[in-house]
Amino acid sequence: MQYENMAKAEQLRKSGKSYSEIRSLLGISKGTLSRWLRDKPLSKSQKLLLVGRNVSRYAGAKANQKKAKLAREKIFFNAFREAGLLFKDSFFVAGLMLYWAEGTKSGTTVTFTNSDPQMIEFMMLWFRKYCCIPESKYRVKIFIHTLLVADDWKENWAKITNLPFSQFTLPYIKPTITKHRKNKLYNGTCVIKINSFVLMEKIRGWHKRCVQEILKG
Q1: Does residue 50 sit in the same domain as residue 100?
Q2: Contact (CB, 8 A) for 142 and 190
Q3: What are phi and psi of 109, to 5 degrees?
Q4: Nearest by Cα to 19 from 33, 8, 6, 2
């Protein structure tokens, strides 16, 4: 088996494959591959082939990055323009400002965190009204203290978010050292997550326009 892999590695290298590609295909370590190929240098034409493939791969990656950047900029600009029409909607502006205070501002996952049930309920209404996200994309994570949280915390958050238990991820449960009695009104901290770079760019565009409008007076 080893000799068979050695022969395959040599053939792949001659065909212009990089070390990382060969390792991935054969499932061998970098050190092993180096030992196998150290006495088998590439010819000038093989080196040119490998360089050409690397240049082509790099150009393709840069092209994809540029394409993704243009797509994000288009989403941002359209949202910026849309916010000009939504600015007089007090519910829209209130939810946007709350998100900007308590939510994530970068990355590809929109995340809103709060322990106030009314705040979470408000933001779920806002997401559903303005963000046009399929219900299946919502995820909920709860952070709780074992001795302080109410017994029915999960049922309470399911009712507040109007989401099924299947969309709740595993909670983060922090043990409480002190033996205080449970707070029947405390349900922990709720984190709403929506994995969508499109929505993140829309929120950024909305926020930019609304801040401009507010500052203009």
Answers
A1: no
A2: yes
A3: -120, 120
A4: 33
Q: In total, how many domains does the chain have?
A: 2
pLDDT, tens only, 59-113: 667 677 777 778 889 999 999 999 999 998 999 999 999 999 999 998 999 999 9
Does residue 102 share a domain with residue 14? Answer: no
* Element of type H or E holding 193: strand 189-195
H helical segments located in 113-152? 117-126
Domain that holds residue 209: 86-216
189: nearest Cα among 141, 155, 131 = 141
The pairing of beta strand 172-174 with beta strand 138-145: parallel
Kindly report whether the global pTM for this prediction surpasses the value 0.70.
no
Quick one: tokens of 145?
């203290």
